[in-house]
Amino acid sequence: NMDSALHYIHNDSDLSTNSSFSPEEERKSKVQDVVPQALLDQYLSMTDPSRAQTVDTEIAKHCAYSLPGVALTLGRQNWHCLKDTYETLASDMQWKVRRTLAFSIHELAVILGDQLTAGDLVPVFNGFLKDLDEVRIGVLKHLHDFLKLLHLDKRREYLYQLQEFLVTDNSRNWRFRAELAEQLILLLDLYSARDIYDYLRPIAFSLCADKVSSVRWISYKLVSEMVKKLYVASTSTFVVDLMDELVEKFCRCHKWSGRQTFVFICQTISEDDCLPMDQFA
Q1: GO CC: one term (predicted)?
Q2: Beta carbons of 9 and 34 less than 8 angstroms apart
Q3: Cys-Cys with 218: which of 48, 62, 181, 239 at CB 3.0–4.6 Å?
Q4: Phi/psi of residue 3, nearest 5 degrees
Q5: Distance (Å, whole) CA 23 – CA 68
Q6: Burial of 4: CB neighbours in 10 Å, binned 0-12, 13-18, 19+
Q7: What's the Cα-to-Cα distance from 202 to each of 181, 195, 246, 280, rounded to whole Å?
Q8: Would you list the domain boundaries of the chain?
């Protein structure tokens, strides 16, 4: 019975967004018929500050950890039951609570669908982008997973913010930059050749000159994938301009490390067959 009930709850033909609720229904926003109401009320009360003092100081974190599972069980048509609680958790004073939500926001977006994601999750996502590094790493690790769920025009808005990931609270936090390089490789599939050239190329070149070798090695792969993507694009001038800049910036660099970077990038491009050999030559 539970299986058939869940199938009914998540049947696409039965899904609706919060836009279909009338003002009267909104006032009864915590009522649903999927699980016992008392059980849901107990869960929602976990954000009450008094519970943290009397029950468990980490109760809000536990609440945040379980929220995607609760949302999946209730179905997106009952998201109105959880929306206020989610926003309360997203603005919690404890960074561990916000970090927990940041690591799962892409999963919640899949559960809620594009309309609810655009209306209710994108503002929270934008807040996490400006948060502490401990919270930002959560959205960075799943940046591609989240952005691919957004419409193209909304997705393009984040091109202007990717540069901000190069700046961290602690400059020694090289894993942050390494994760950025990994995500940019995945993001190449989501953007046009012009967007890649205009916005992702400068970030990639900056990462190629990073002080930490682990970041640089991932960045070589990023540049090679960028070359491949731009080569197959109809506007081939981008790849020529990119290669000219590689020669100018790294091959003719007055530092030996820059010239070494050029050699490693060439190696990666040839090993991954990113270009025909005549074009490579």
Answers
A1: cytoplasm
A2: yes
A3: 181
A4: -60, -45
A5: 26
A6: exposed
A7: 12, 11, 11, 21
A8: 32-150, 170-280
The architecture (CATH level 2) of 32-150 comes to: Alpha Horseshoe (1.25)
Contact predicate 18/83, CB 8 Å: yes
Residue type, 111: I
Residues in the chain: 281
Report CA Rg, the chain.
Answer: 23
Neighbours of 152 (CB within 10 A): 9
Structure tokens at 51: 């519970």
User: Helix, strand or coil for residue 149?
Assistant: coil
SS (H, E, C) the chain: CHHHHHHHHCCHHHCCCHHHCCHHHHHCCCCCCCCCHHHHHHHHHHHCHHHHHHCCCCHHHHHHHHHHHHHHHHCHHHHHHCHHHHHHHHCCCCHHHHHHHHHHHHHHHHHHHHHHHHHHHHHHHHHHHCCCHHHHHHHHHCHHHHHCCCCHHHHHHHHHCHHHHHCCCCCCCHHHHHHHHHHHHHHHHHCCHHHHHHHHHHHHHHHHCCCCHHHHHHHHHHHHHHHHHHHHCCCCHHHHHHHHHHHHHHHCCCCHHHHHHHHHHHHHHHHCCCCCHHHHC
Q: pLDDT (tens digit, 0 to 9) for every residue of the chain, 281 residues total?
A: 445 444 444 444 344 444 455 555 544 667 777 788 888 888 888 888 777 666 677 889 999 999 999 999 998 889 999 999 999 999 999 999 999 999 999 999 999 998 999 999 999 999 999 999 999 999 999 999 999 999 999 999 999 889 888 888 887 889 999 999 999 999 999 999 999 999 999 999 999 999 999 999 999 999 999 999 999 886 668 999 999 999 999 999 999 999 999 999 999 999 999 999 988 98
